[in-house]
Amino acid sequence: MTKQELLKRMGSIDSLCRAEEFTFTSGTARGSRGIRIKCGKLAFTLLPDRCLDIAYAEVEGVPVSYDSCTGIVSPAYYNEGDFLRNFGAGLLTTCGLNQIGGDCVDGEKTYGLHGRIGNTPAYDVSIDRHWEGEDYVLTVSGKIKQASVFGENLELIRSISVKLFEQTIAISDRVINNSFREEPFMMLYHINFGYPLLSEDAVLTTNMGTPAPKDEHSAKDLDICHTFTAPQKDFAEQLYFYNSVPSSRARLTNENLGLFAEVSYAGDNLPYMVEWKQIGEGIYVVGLEPGTNPPEGRVVARENGRLQMLSPGEAKDFSVNISFGTTN
After folding, report:
1. DSSP letters along 85-135, please?
2. Residue boundaries of the structural domains of the chain
3. pLDDT band, very low/low/confident/very high, at 16 (cuts 50, 70, 90)
4. Tens digits of residue pLDDT in 34-84
5. What is the mean pLDDT of residues 232-242?
6. What is the average pLDDT across 81-89?
7. Per-residue b/e over 52-62, b at no fewer than 16 CB within 10 Å?
8. Which architecture, in CATH terms, is 3-326?
């Protein structure tokens, strides 16, 4: 339908595409802000108090995100040394901005697993809805600051957009170094898919060639890293590192479900993608994670020549899309 044909049939476009702001009232999420987005067949929840990350997500009522046993946890409970107690996962957890990977000590400071940014509240949060020609666009924007006296002063400016009748979540980020010195910079988009999209019927395809396994445990299953089984008892995670290409794509397809999810991004500022394969009982998830680095920690990244630096006032832009579609 054209815009005019559609509007003739509706009292309010909110019936098809809307954003609803709310506050969690119980459990460890209590007091945190949320924004429910419903846009055609796509529905998901944004967490303004957690970097405007994406929690629950579904397509036509089918869950597509992996939501961990912790549930949504307010950043008030965050302890840098215990990231996993706050790791609700969801469709997107942002990691960084000056550390991704396991705990490490750099100089006299300890940096926790995957950094602080995913547990940092956004400010200047706004919701915009408007027509762009024949497209109805809904955008949620905000700013997230990671700063410390005598430390870093980094800012993430984020916009998350959807278009009516398109099943794509478009993430547009800019990271700025607001300090007067060069700063280490690391960032990872921890995008997580779970059951029923992930099952023994799911297959991963990419346009990035053969990945490098993290370790011997991952290497032994390299030839089956693109396929999955039913949940396995005591499964130990496996990690595979891909080198990005200019227009990188990774697609998880479940023909039995008739659904696919695709992560696509520009590889210029995100030179790596990680496949996190964790097919254990209760922790049944595959992560497709574009990043500035493999999750190796800033010390190892520096030793390997992979630690990016931001000059004073320098900004870097990132664009990541999460798309869904049917296979029939």
Report:
1. GS--EESEEEEEES--SS-EEETTEEE-TT-SGGGS--EEEEEEEEEETTE
2. 3-326
3. very high
4. 999 999 999 999 999 999 999 999 999 999 999 999 999 999 999 988 999
5. 98
6. 95
7. bbbbbbbbeee
8. Distorted Sandwich (2.70)
